[in-house]
């Protein structure tokens, strides 16, 4: 580790000022601190958001579940409101990393980082959520912009995420056993506007699949997925899985998610 300045924000306004001055926001630190140890990140100033209680918490507002950016994964996984209204989101949160990661990691930090194998981006995109910042509200379809890239401006921070309550939704993940990140994860949501299918772990970032959505809009069943072609040419390949293997996993995890949403699989 190298020398850096550590500051604790006492208010949202102060955090925004520190961010504008070049500070790097510290939420749960599950990605950032590891990256700093490896010298992949070298911020001169860390701005700790841990003291901002207004950025944590879960509530219901106008038919949506609103989760503060500093809410820990474990809190999402065990919250009665989330488990009642969007159980698929609670299950997703309960499957992130290990107990230590879930105790410290935050939803805002995960979404802002936009790791291509992270779980939360698939829920945000799959549910058509809105990302609230200190400046504006950004639709999920506009927020994620590729590998570790988002629509956030340099002086902008996530304050909360608003998840519309779907008719049904579920998440299925084939995890990389060491990191527990998604080798392929699929979030399926049946909403009043139609079915949304968001995939993580298979490409340069989370993405929706039009073919799967069309098939499931016509027939919301695992059988409907069989006839959908998954193009492997744009998928990731690495030592853990080839693009073709990930294409097969997308279909399998989509079927699992649909069955979970229908109550046919635990």
TrEMBL record:
This is Xanthine dehydrogenase family protein subunit M. InterPro entries: CO_DH_flav_C (IPR005107), CO_DH_flav_C_dom_sf (IPR036683), Diverse_Substr_Oxidored (IPR051312), FAD-bd_PCMH (IPR016166), FAD-bd_PCMH-like_sf (IPR036318), FAD-bd_PCMH_sub1 (IPR016167), FAD-bd_PCMH_sub2 (IPR016169), Mopterin_DH_FAD-bd (IPR002346). Keywords: FAD, Flavoprotein, Oxidoreductase. Residues 1-168 form the FAD-binding PCMH-type domain. The keyword Transferase does not apply. The keyword Flavoprotein applies. It comes from the Bacteria.
């Amino acid at each position: 580790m190298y020398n850096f300045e550590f500051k604790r924000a006492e208010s949202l306004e102060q955090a925004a000022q520190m961010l504008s001055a070049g500070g790097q926001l510290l939420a749960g630190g599950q990605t950032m601190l590891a990256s700093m140890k490896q010298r992949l990140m070298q911020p001169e100033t860390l701005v700790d958001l841990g003291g901002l209680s207004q950025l944590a918490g879960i509530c219901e507002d106008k038919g949506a579940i609103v989760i503060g950016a500093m809410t820990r994964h474990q809190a999402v996984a065990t919250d009665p409101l989330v488990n009642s209204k969007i159980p698929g989101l609670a299950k997703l949160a309960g499957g992130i990393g290990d107990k230590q990661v879930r105790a410290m990691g935050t939803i805002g930090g995960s979404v802002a980082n936009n790791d291509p194998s992270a779980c939360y981006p698939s829920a945000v995109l799959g549910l058509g959520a809105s990302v609230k910042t200190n400046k504006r509200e950004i639709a999920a379809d506009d927020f994620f912009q590729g590998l570790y890239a988002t629509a956030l401006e340099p002086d902008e921070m996530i304050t909360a995420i608003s998840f519309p309550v779907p008719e049904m939704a579920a998440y299925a993940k084939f995890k990389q056993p060491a990191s527990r990140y998604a080798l392929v994860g699929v979030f399926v949501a049946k909403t009043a506007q139609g079915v949304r299918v968001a995939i993580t772990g298979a490409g340069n970032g989370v993405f929706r699949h039009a073919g799967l959505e069309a098939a499931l809009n016509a027939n919301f069943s695992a059988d409907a997925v069989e006839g959908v072609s998954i193009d492997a040419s744009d998928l990731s390949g690495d030592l853990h899985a080839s693009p073709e293997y990930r294409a097969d996993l997308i279909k399998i995890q989509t079927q699992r998610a649909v069955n979970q949403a229908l109550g046919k699989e635990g």
